[in-house]
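Standup notes
- DV: blocked on the single-chain target, sequence here:
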Amino acid sequence: MDTEQQAQTSLNQAGSSDGSNLNGSSLVARVKKLLFRQMLVGISDGRFFLGTFYCIDKQGNIILQDAVEYRSTRRSSPSPMEQRGLGLILIPVSCRTSCHVGCSIEEQISLLSLKE
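- DV (later): unblocked, structure below
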């Protein structure tokens, strides 16, 4: 399982609202390892948000701080992507399609060594 899948699994399990604990302290530890890391989140309309992972709520919504939105431009322009600074944003779980976490190789090994 790569770092993206590990992060997505941790976020999905931590945000599950089915009432099951699923070893809650382990899930909290996983999410704590993601705190304050650069995260790139894709959403269903094709936009991406790059920011610092700040928290996740029980439903699985992600909050990023110092976020920048990236979106594809369809008109002819020198840059294929437009960007704009947003600050603190909430990304609903229903819109999220991907999560990428920025970290070093040693940190990736540490994240991957966690038991599911």
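- Follow-up: The CA atoms of residues 71 and 82 lie 5 Å apart.
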